[in-house]
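Subject: Protein record for review, amino acid sequence with backbone structure tokens
How to read it: Take the token row as a discrete description of the fold.
Enclosed: The protein record, placed directly beneath this head.
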Amino acid sequence: MTKYWFGFLLLLPTIAVSEVLKSSEQFIAEAFESSPKREVLWLNQEIKAQVRDEIDYQLNQLRVRYWAQGSRTAWILEEVGKEEVITIGIVVDKNKIEHFDVLVYRESRGGEIKHGFFTKQFIGAGLTQARSKMGLSERIDGITGATLSVRATKKVATLALFLHQQTDYATHVEKK
């Protein structure tokens, strides 16, 4: 019986545990001073093709929900790191990332991406076009042992910026 327990213990480090760092409600409340408008972006074939070809991301849904107020939008998006889904909250204002948070981290390794030293790199990033692919205007430093999680966060950040540009809020001008 002891040898079975030993085998089970060897598996423990690879078992992913969900770590909820912030709820969606907390993220939205922190992103806006007052209650934002909940919106829906319908994903037509043109948007899906552009995302697939220029971001290497597969949008398999009909719509994406987001929150908006003034020129700001907030997105809660998910991407697989190595094996598990990472839930990320991104606030975009004036076509630049204003806030970036890992909301739920489910991987067994690479958790460094949830810390401020990593997430603050996204602040101020916009979209850039290089060799027919969209990317971030800011360089995001990788983390040894978290390559796939880093790649997932960069992809989601690029996607949020692109989706923001598909809304009316990207060109919103504040009334004085």
Notes: The first helix runs from residue 2 to 11. Strands lie at 19-20, 37-42, 63-69, 72-80, 85-93, 96-105, 127-130, 133-136. Helices lie at 2-11, 24-31, 45-55, 116-119, 147-165.
